[in-house]
Amino acid sequence: MSDEMPVEVLVQRLDPDLPIPSYARAGDAGLDLLARTACEIAPGARQSVPTGLAIALPAGYAAFVHPRSGLAARHGLTVLNAPGTVDAGYRGEVTVILHNTDPARSVRLDRGDRVAQLVIQRVAVADLVEVTTLPASERGAGGFGSTGGVAAMEGQS
């Protein structure tokens, strides 16, 4: 259990018949987001799924919409713009853009199904300072795979 005090987030239910999102277990990072409407997502298609929820985050916070690992593993369903970002100033309905990566099977979602997770985090505001050169670092300009990933192994068979 964290020693930090919970951050107060104002919640408006746009659909009074759906429950307010909650954490499935103590210590979970994500609140479960539910589908406000039923839908079927064809193979390779995407669908915007409303959650019936609007929030007001305090300044210095953002909410991030993450895929549910169970939906990804069982159905190939993911959040297309993962993680989707909900800024502190946004007051509209939280909507999840789902993408069915399965090449052959549609995915059916019913009203009230858990479709994504909402993770609320403190965010820093950057003060960008333009320079002509950047200070050196151990990694330098090494990009994708430069720390031993796929690109570093491409020459191996």
Automatic annotation (TrEMBL):
**An example Gene Ontology molecular-function term:** magnesium ion binding
Q: Name one GO biological process term.
A: dUMP biosynthetic process
Root EC class: hydrolase
Q: Does the keyword Magnesium apply?
A: yes
Q: Which residues form the dUTPase-like domain?
A: 19-148
Where does this protein act, in terms of pathway? Pyrimidine metabolism; dUMP biosynthesis; dUMP from dCTP (dUTP route): step 2/2
Pfam families (UniProt xref): dUTPase (PF00692)
Known catalysed reaction(s)? dUTP + H2O = dUMP + diphosphate + H(+)
Q: Is the keyword Magnesium in the record?
A: yes
Highest rank taxon of the organism? Bacteria
Cofactor(s), names only, from the UniProt record: Mg(2+)
Q: Provide the binding site for substrate.
A: 68-70, 81, 85-87
- Give its E.C. classification number: 3.6.1.23
Where in this chain does the entry annotate a coiled-coil region? none
Report the InterPro entries cross-referenced here.
dUTPase (IPR008181), dUTPase-like (IPR029054), dUTPase-like_sf (IPR036157), dUTPase_trimeric (IPR033704)
Which UniProt keywords are present, listed alphabetically? Hydrolase, Magnesium, Metal-binding, Nucleotide metabolism
Family of this protein: Belongs to the dUTPase family.
- Matching NCBIfam families, A to Z? dut, PRK00601.1
Q: Briefly, what is this protein's role? A: This enzyme is involved in nucleotide metabolism: it produces dUMP, the immediate precursor of thymidine nucleotides and it decreases the intracellular concentration of dUTP so that uracil cannot be incorporated into DNA.
**The name this protein goes by in its record:** Deoxyuridine 5'-triphosphate nucleotidohydrolase
Q: Which organism is it from?
A: Ruania alkalisoli
* Gene name, Swiss-Prot/TrEMBL: dut
